[in-house]
User: Fold these one by one.
Assistant:
Number 1:
Amino acid sequence: MPEPVIVAQNLVKRYQDFVAVDGISFEVAPGESFGLLGPNGAGKSTTMRMIGAVSTRTSGKLSVLGLDPNGYGPEIRSQLGVVPQENNLDMELRVRENLMVYGRYFGLPHARVARRADELLEFAQLEDKATAKVDDLSGGMKRRLTIARALINDLRMLLLDEPTTGLDPQARHILWDRLFRLKEQGTTLLVTTHYMDEAEQLCDRLVVVDKGRIMAEGSPADLIRRYSSREVLEVRFGSTQNAEVAGRIQGFGERVDVLPDRILVYSDSGENELERMTAAGLRPITSLVRRSSLEDVFLRLTGRNLIE
Amino acid sequence: MSANDVGRARDAGAASDSIRLETLAAAVAAAARTRRYGSWYVAEHRFRVMRSYAQTVLFTAIGSPLVYLYAMGVGLASLVDGNLGDNAVNGVSYLTFLAPALLASSAIAVASEEFTYPIMLGFKWNPTFFGMNATSIQPGQIINGIVISVAARMLLTCTIYYVFMLVFGAVPGALGVVAVLVALLTGLAFGVLVMAYTITLKDDTGQLAMMQRFVILPMTLFSGTFFPLDLLPPYLQWIGWISPLWHGTELSRVFAYGMTEPIWLSLVHVLYLAALLAIGWVWARRLTVRRLNK
């Protein structure tokens, strides 16, 4: 079995007044696409920074690419690509120049960086923006440029912190497509996200993180199977009626969750549950049958929604 | 990967099995160039950024000696020399007295520009320093690279200033050109302190503008720039003694026109400026390590 690229054991990061990461443990194998899923403030980015060798852990063990970040920061970082949550492209430089200066930071010769920059502009579909000002790029383009920049060195692992937050659906799909290509080429991906669909699209395996702790671990399908049902029926009776109706549908499906605005019925067949409801004389204002998602897993595990 | 890298890896206490040693040696090799030249890569980046405002750099470098030397050195000097004679101040003409001080001030001006807002920019407004820190670059190298790049701009500015001083006939001393290096030392000694202070700011809520008004401007006025320090009342002279600009200006005058002062005092000027430079530099590096390690 190949040696894992990340081994975290009981990893803790404590700031003066709070614990951001509270003893998490996981391993990532080479070539794997691994996700940290959780709401804002769960400790995902902090974990990512510790793995990226820019944040010193408070306690626990951590090995990245076989090295301890405490003693080998530059050595680890030389083999990583990092896409931070906040774009930090240099606004005072042009698009291609951003790739050039970044490549030099890895000690690569000018000619090699120049060649690689042109390849990456093509990969990021930014060839005709090479001399544009960064400020003039759209949000999606800036993100693609940041990803291109992260790929300039000979990396063994790509860290992506909330790669598509704030992008419109079309831009997200273009980005996912690019990331999927990297995954196919065997690049190890480590992704944090609070988007279910993103985790389902990109991750082979993930951990659900909340308040600095790991709540569950597995593949997306695996987690859904374990913590949810095949389908979910969402019904709305109007906010004043939900509580009253809730009493009458206990025992429906495998489980019922009453939220302030709607009721969720977990079942292998949402349609069947809807028929039962109609037969019982209940008339929801709206109803929707959908496949179960990681959102449901998160709700089940924490009793809260991911995006609040 | 060289035998040397494997050696370093072994020294570092790697596990004995050969695969892990190879991994470590490859990692050490991958980061070796940046460990050695990282500061220069940062400087290279800063030079590219400076190129985007090269016109401003050149315009101020040429414009300010022209304006200042003419207005003060020729205009004001005719008034001073007219009243006090040809050997108006310190036994030389007013222009000769003033020019070395203006030279040192020009280095301070570059410092107060380059070590303030661009630093705030890199840590906060457009956090490129965090981007650098995610590569093999180390925090201290970011500071080194900034100092290198600003030193280069300062040297250019001071050299142009010195050429204008020659043109205006303001440098009788044979060793006058050394004043350019003194100005560089002065600007950097003051600048690294300003940089360290700027790194401590989480937000700019006017502190940098206040510093311009209440530190840099008074320092220029009370550092023996326009008149000798001993003309000030004794209770104000301490401003000059702690001011890097006063030390730099006095030392410049020694070289520019052979101003006489005890050797020990000249040594104090050099040591004081060197000490500020060392303290500010180390302080800025430490603050950066702390600020980037979140």
Number 2:
Amino acid sequence: MIARLLAGAALAALAVGSAQAQQGKVSGDVVKIGVLNDRSGLYADLGGEGSAVAVRMAVEEVGGKILGKPIEVVAADHQNKPDIGSNITREWIDRDGVDVIVDVPNSGVALAVQEVTREKKKIFLMEGPATSRLTGDACSPTGFHWAYDTRALAVGTGQAIVKEGGKKWFFLTADYAFGHQLEADTAAEVKKAGGSVVGAVRAPLNTADFSSFLLQAQSSGAQVIGLANAGGDTITSIKQASEFGLTQSGQQKLAGLLIFLSDVHALGLQVAQDLVLTTGFYWDMDDEKRAWSEKFKAKTGKMPTMVQAGSYSAVKHYLKAIEAAGTDDGPTVAAKMKEMPVNDMFAKNGKILPNGRMVHDMYLARVKKPSESKGPWDYYEIIRTIPGDEAFATLADSGCKLPG
Amino acid sequence: MSTIFGIPPQALFGQLLLGLINGSFYALLSLGLAVIFGMLNVINFAHGALYMLGAFVAWLLLTMAGVGYWWALLLAPLVVGAFGVILEKTLLSRLYKLDHLYGLLLTFGLALIVEGIFRHFYGVSGQPYPIPDLLRGGQNLGFMFLPNYRGWVVVASLIVCLATWYAIERTKLGAYLRAATENPVLVQAFGINVPVMITATYGFGVALAGLAGVLAAPIYQVSPLMGSNLIIVVFAVVVIGGMGSILGAVLTGYGLGLLEGLTKVFYPEASNIVVFVIMAVVLLIKPAGLFGRER
């Protein structure tokens, strides 16, 4: 009697289990991708609608369908406000059935969104944000950091400049999570390479006039002024540094720690020439990148930044993982993504660490002089390939503690 | 070397001079706002967008027609002024009978539309505008390197502010204007065409914004966001100075520029809120503003 009862219970359990597996295949019968970024402010050109275009390109390449279910792309503006970003994420996941959040530049917003996606067990593909904390103390089992991070920038640009003799540094830092982390990571690399940091000034995000801060940097006696800021802030500070003759005297040199292709385009080569920068992607490196970028340009009128190209790559990999896992369930897909190597036009043999860091080669580039450039968008000369293992922290060094 | 509050005096002079330069923009913009509010009783939220428009007109003139900086300095304010006249004639003039709030909402909406259009076509990173050849380079003042162009901005804005103040407070036309503000019906009865005067005032006020835009173009990127970045501070300046007070707007503009410069030395993190802290304090102590009259 008891044996029969047990067998019956086992059978019932089996039936329930398989029903769940059936249900879990594709939630809501649609894979919904939410592109969340700054669509109107100072970071709109480096990600913005361009990231959504790149994601749609990835979706088109798989025919707009996965596991027989349609793929939908939605986009929203987080206005660089963490509260707005996490609210949209909650709404998307709870109400609209969004399965994955993509891009989210501005480290402050990304840290907030990471909390939500961790709690809801949804995939978060980060291309825009920079702070290495996203795969460090703030890591999540379903969070993936794709295009670059503050550590890679510090290793690339920081070390290269110290090696050239720029030993005394002063930081001009954007006063929020990203700037602080970039400053800290770069300072660590500078000191490791034998340099020193003589001072730093924290400027509010989206400052219109940097002259006052630049003047402080000028009188600090530093050889290198490290710009730990991004987007519109970087553009303004480089432009005004040139106006105030900071670099013409030859005693000081600017190090743009995070410079996007869109920034160089906005500055013009006359002002931006000879800047050394670290990037995860440049369109004019091989045929595959050129072909994809031309397609992107036909849709947007601009060449892609590393954020936009990275958004394409991450979504492509995510869709492959769904195909392989046979479900869009967050933790299952995340595990699958970490098993598979990343091979596309963006990265060759990229691998994903358990903390979600996608490790791929980074590139040290120099901005061309106007005389060297053959036309619009011909901006970078790649001077060094930084192997992924050198650019990004190992799991042990990252400070990430994942359960299990 | 001796120091003032731990800062070398040379660095302090440098920062004060920079504050004066930023103050020049505050003064030019708040002057336009004050003139418009004084005559029309309209809180012109489109001012930032029109400042941006001035910079873009200069940039378009340069890239499309090859028209240089000096002509742009004349033409851009005219274009922006003409645009302002159209706005006043077709839209704003319908709202004078209503509460202030409607003018504010209308101009705020206009600002969003104008900005949105430019953002759609030009993105947010902005377009570079070169410094005119005549004003390239700079002077080494001993305590700082002053780019010639920034020096020119201070001089130009001082001249314009003084000229405007003189025209309104010391000329006959200015007297008509001030009278029309006090009692439009009576002034009209003397045979003066008040509606035309109001239109011209609005056109002049926004032309000032256009002029500030051209002056700003070589310093900042010519970007659709440049107006909204500045306009909130400028409103705070007008509130502190006293709504409708022309001299108050100019003096407060320069004063707050200086104060902001000092904040950037002593506590940079607070530099973008110091103006608002002062606004709150002034509103508590003297609600009409430092130079304003209670109405």
